[in-house]
Design a protein that fits this description.
By secondary structure, the chain is mainly α. The chain has 6 helices and 2 strands; from the N terminus they run E-E-H-H-H-H-H-H.
Length: about 130
């Protein structure tokens, strides 16, 4: 499996994606770790699903997350908005043939659960204020 995500505009290596947080002071709880690990483990599936559902814009949304999180952390407003947009895209609210998209729904559910666990642990992240 290729550890890089290739896009038309950029190439992002994610092999160290969660490690940058695990070794920094920004990594404060297991919910953050779980969310980052989920993103790392499911990156190819998230990219493929976002590309299939949202085309280039969907793929850029996921690539943007992988660019933003190491730079700005999970508390950044842009990251939170992108995570919510990704959940909305993966949740398939406007798709009526749900039998063919069950795997994508599972990706959305996994991401939603880990993000909610993070917000449950640190509610200030959900409201847009970094934890003190």
């Amino acid at each position: 499996m290729n550890p890089s995500i290739c896009g038309a505009k950029r190439k992002v290596s994610l092999m160290t994606f969660p490690n940058r947080f695990q070794t920094s002071e920004a990594m404060t709880n297991t919910a953050e770790i779980a969310l980052l690990q989920y993103l790392q483990e499911q990156r190819q599936g998230l990219l493929a699903a976002a590309n299939m559902l949202g085309g280039g814009d969907g793929r850029e949304l996921v690539e943007g997350l992988f660019d933003e999180i190491p730079r700005n952390g999970l508390s950044a407003r842009r990251v939170r908005l992108a995570l919510r947009a990704l959940i909305a895209l993966l949740s398939l609210a406007n798709v009526h043939d749900h039998d063919s998209v069950e795997e994508i729904r599972l990706l959305a559910d996994g991401l939603r659960e880990r993000l909610q666990a993070l917000f449950d642990r640190e509610p200030t992240l959900e409201k847009g204020r970094p934890a003190a």
